[in-house]
Amino acid sequence: MSSIDVCFSPELLHLYDLKGKAVVAVDILRATSTMVTAFANGAADIIPVMQLDECLQYATQGCLTAAERDGVKAEGFDLGNSPFAYMNGHIKGRTIAITTTNGTRAIRMSEAAEEIIVGAFLNLQAVADHLIALGLDVIVVCAGWKGKFNLEDTLFAGALAAKLQDKFTFENDATLASLYLYQAAKADLVTFLRQSSHVQRLENLETNKDIAFCMKHDVYNTLPVWKKDRLVDLHAAPTLA
């Protein structure tokens, strides 16, 4: 039976052997939620990068550029990190280069894995179904906040563990703790997260609408996965599987 484990921060990835495993990279507030939304609204592919200057260079290749630092859209870029900015139709068929404080880092630091999947509450069931079909051991890599633990990504890990618990073993106590936390919070995730550090940061930036949206379950069936040097939606491009 395959196993599921949870890495609470990319800073802890050195403790994990990613070879032959599936990584679910998650940054609920808001990078991976935004990526899932972008694909649902027709983005062709997404190139996650770690640095602002590297991201900006993709504009010369005809890409849209998106950047966030400390919760705020970076100056000089087409898009920020709010999922609502990707819903007006202008990204359809476009390649988006994106860099964020935490989420893109979690993706790029997981490149040794057999498969990298971008997860959010917005595509939770699609992620779970794919992992069951894939049959690999799973590591949920929480983006956290600047290398530290955060609550919202851990809640996603618990929600995924709840979906997989009958078919996957729990590798260690991190998965069990995530599951118990999600069970305690699932009746009202937004209220549960209200005192969390990142929600407080975002509320100070007047992003309450983003927070509520990112907590919704199974809004989309999109499945972003890493292919060569970028993310594609596996459900939109089955020939790339």
From TrEMBL:
Protein name as catalogued: Probable 2-phosphosulfolactate phosphatase
Membership in a protein family: Belongs to the ComB family.
Coiled-coil ranges from the UniProt annotation: none
UniProt KW Cell membrane keyword: no
Keyword terms, alphabetized: Hydrolase, Magnesium
SUPFAM superfamilies assigned to the protein according to its UniProt record, in alphabetical order: ComB-like (SSF142823)
Top-rank taxon, per record: Bacteria
Organism: Pontibacter arcticus
Cofactor section: Mg(2+)
InterPro entries the record matches: ComB-like, ComB-like_sf
The keyword Magnesium belongs to this UniProt entry's keyword annotation: yes
GO molecular function, one term: sulfopyruvate decarboxylase activity
